[in-house]
Fold this sequence. Notes:
Blueprint: H1 19-38, E1 91-92, H2 94-98, E2 108-115, E3 118-125, E4 128-132
Parallel strand pairs: 1-2
Antiparallel strand pairs: 2-3, 3-4
Amino acid sequence: xxxxxxxxxxxxxxxxxxxxxxxxxxxxxxxxxxxxxxxxxxxxxxxxxxxxxxxxxxxxxxxxxxxxxxxxxxxxxxxxxxxxxxxxxxxxxxxxxxxxxxxxxxxxxxxxxxxxxxxxxxxxxxxxxxxxxxxxxxxxx
Length: 141
């Protein structure tokens, strides 16, 4: 669908114009509104909401991707981002981590070889990546 960007408003807002002059503009506006309504849930259209006020999963990409090399920032008013399940970090080597252009204190990576050749989590602090060594296996007992 071609998203409506403008609708002529020469006669509708003109109190001196006749009703018959405005009829075509009103019709075009109604068509544009119907196009928007009919685009609900379709590609290049608008997302719908389910009975819980949520956008159905099939209308949302599972990947959040920015363009032009921009970072993705999540900034909720609460100051907290909650992840309901697991965060999966892509494995990187020390060489890949070293090529990160502008790391910022608090950045976190998972390296396959960052702790003297073994896997670890690393956090960037001030001017270097710091090792968070992996310990023993988790256990409920």
